[in-house]
Amino acid sequence: MPPEVHAGGVHGKAGDVYAFGVCLWELATEAWLWAGFDKDDVVAQVKRGERPSQDKLKDKGTPAALVAMMQKAWAQDPTRRPGFAYVLEEGATRGALGKV
For residue range 5-50, what is the model confidence (pLDDT) as tens digits? Predict the structure, then answer.
């Protein structure tokens, strides 16, 4: 869940973008993001603004454009996350998502 929900906020479209970024990380790394952590640890990490390891993305050769898109999707402030129109446009024009 996105940080705003853990802070008592509402899950909206920005939360979906956050979740999409997490899914992209899991697909790119072929790993479960929070494997080995209990729910309370995950919530605490997300609230503190901790984000997934960039090292695993580099190890897998993840394209820089895709990494940048994930980083924008994980913004702590939901108003700073892109919408899905941007994600699709960025994916199509910069190849971050392959052929869309």
Answer: 777 777 789 999 999 999 999 999 999 988 889 989 988 888 888 8
20, with CB counted inside 10 A (0-12, 13-18, 19+), is: middle
Domain for residue 22, yes or no? yes
How far apart, in Å, are the Cα atoms of 38 and each of 10, 44, 54, 92? Answer: 23, 10, 21, 37
Q: CB of 19 within 8 A of CB of 27?
A: no
For 71, what's the count of Cα atoms within 13 Å in the CB-facing half-sphere? 10
Within-domain flag for 99: no
